[in-house]
Each structure stands twice: as C-alpha cells, then as structure tokens.
Design goal:
Oligomer: single chain
Distance between the termini: 156 Å
Number of helices: 3
Radius of gyration: 43 Å
Largest sheet: 6 strands, antiparallel
Strand content: 15-25%
Shape: elongated
Number of strands: 10
Structural class: alpha+beta
Length: 299
C-alpha cells in the first residue's frame, strides 16, 4: 500500500517536472525569438531644445521591435554627436534624421532656416506685434502703410498687404515657443522667414512706411489678393459680415446674405391712344355711259 502511494507521487512529480521543463523551454525559445526581432534605437534621455547641439550625455539606447522602428533612426549615439535639432525633442522620443539639421550646421537660429530662405528682423511695438502674442512658428501677413506719391506735396497714403503667410522664426531672442502660449510676451523685434525677393520688399516697406503684422490661422493657406485701401476707399464704409466660430475654416463660415436694396419705382410712361383704323378701300370700276363717266364701288 505504501509502495503504491509512493509510486503515484513519483509519477505525479515526473509529470509536473516534464510540464515545467516544456514550459521553460517554450518561454526561452519565444524570448530568444523576440530578442532577435529587436533593434537598437537611440532616444533622447532628456528634453533637447530646438536649435541646440546634441551631446552624448543627452542620449541613450533602447530596444525597439523591428517593425516599429522609425524611419531614419540611429542605432548608436556616436552618430548623433554634434548634430543640431531643428524641432523640440522630448525625453524618451526617438531621434530621426528629419528632426536634425544637415551635418556641419551651427547651433542657433541658422539651423532652423530652410535652404533658399533668409531670416530678417523687423521692429515692432505692442500694436504691430499683436500685443506680444506672436510666437515662433506663427504665420503672419505684413501690411504696410505708405504714401506712393513722391515729394512733399499732397499726401494720399495707402495701406496694402505686401507679404502673405510668413513664418515667424523668433520673437525677440527667443526661437522656441514658451510653455504657456496663452501668455503674451512683449518684444521689440520679430524675426521672419522670407525668400530673398520677399526680403527686398520687406526692407523697402520698413524704410518707406509703417509695418503692421496680421496673424493668421495655421491651417489658413489662402492667397488673398486685395487692391489696398486709401482715404477715399476708407470713407465708403463696410458691409456687415456674419461672425464665424473661432478657428472655423472658410468653407464652414456662414455666407453673408445681401440685403435687398430699396429703389424707387420708375414713373409710368404715358399711354398713347391707338390710331383710328383706316377704312378698307373698296374695288371701283369706271363706267362710261355715252358722254358721261362715273366710278362704281363694289362692296
């Protein structure tokens, strides 16, 4: 009886041992297969600000599944040493080639200027700078008020949009957005990203007239061609436009309804009397009776 119980316990132990060995073997096999499907990716250890040069102390290497590895990622931190970030890189975020300036680019504002563009600074006050709400990355239109006539004679100033959809690179000496974008930051200068042709227009506008920056929505890429406004156009007034919701697209904005214009009815024309109908001519026959002649009408 005792041997029978011992035999049952021994068989049970063997069965559980085999199951445990099989489970451990499967786990090790799956772990080994999973490790073979991993790749090394360099991520930021701390937040890397826009325009700063990356140093090895800011980086670390983690394992990523190969199917989830971002395009342009780096497998070693040594390849990133000395590169400049063109966007803010958060901690634990993978660093890719699209987030970096070209090799050899110096740190600072020059790193965020695209090829073919220039950075140009213009003076602003609280009014021209939209009370300090223009932040790096904002899009603005440039309006200039200028007198097109030369000489010191009669003045007829005109206000005109000369540049559209211009990106703000910096306000003051700050090239990065503040943590709280709802707080205004009063500055005396704003740096804009312009092409060489736009830089020439902006320089002339700043010299000959007064500049005003007009902020636009980030998703509004429309091209608005306006004739400009002078004193005569200004005094003609304006029509009432329905107020759209904040941030609404142009297609979502209510259309303005034109009001009917009351006009005086034209004076009625005098009615002329119809001419009397002419009698229908009747057929006539000339009859000769001896020495007499007479005309006879037939009905």
């Amino acid at each position: 009886m005792r041997n029978k119980r011992f035999f049952i316990v021994l068989v049970g132990a063997l069965i559980f041992g085999v199951l445990a060995a099989v489970s451990v073997s499967r786990y090790l096999s799956s772990a080994q297969a999973y490790s073979k499907n991993l790749s090394k990716v360099t991520v930021a250890k701390v937040t890397i600000p826009l325009g700063s040069k990356i140093i090895p102390e800011q980086l670390m290497v983690v394992q990523f599944p190969k199917e989830s590895t971002p395009d342009g990622a780096f497998d070693t931190p040594e390849k990133l040493a000395g590169r400049v970030a063109v966007v803010n890189i958060a901690a634990k975020e993978p660093i890719t080639e699209t987030k970096l300036a070209a090799e050899g680019t110096a740190a600072g504002l020059s790193a965020v200027i695209p090829e073919g563009y220039r950075a140009m600074t213009v003076k602003v006050d609280d009014a021209a700078g939209i009370s300090g709400f223009i932040m790096p990355g904002s899009l603005v239109d440039v309006v200039v008020t200028i007198d097109p006539r030369e000489g010191a004679g009669r003045q007829d100033p005109i206000s005109k949009i000369v540049l559209q959809n211009i990106k703000v690179l910096a306000n003051g000496q700050n090239i990065d957005k503040p943590e709280n974008e709802r707080e205004a930051n009063s500055v005396k200068a704003v740096t804009l990203q312009v092409t060489p042709e736009q830089a020439e227009k902006l320089a002339l506008a700043a010299t000959e007239g007064k500049l005003q920056l007009v902020m636009r929505n980030q998703i509004d890429q429309g091209d608005e061609q306006t004739p400009g406004v002078n004193k005569r156009n200004l005094l003609t007034g304006d029509t009432v436009m329905p107020m759209p919701e904040p941030g609404a697209l142009k297609s979502e904005q209510p259309k303005s309804e034109s009001r009917p214009v009351r006009r005086s009815a034209p004076a009625p024309k005098p009615v002329q009397a119809a001419p009397a109908p002419q009698p229908t001519p009747r057929a006539q026959v000339e009859m000769i009776e001896g020495a007499k002649k007479r005309n006879v009408e037939f009905p």
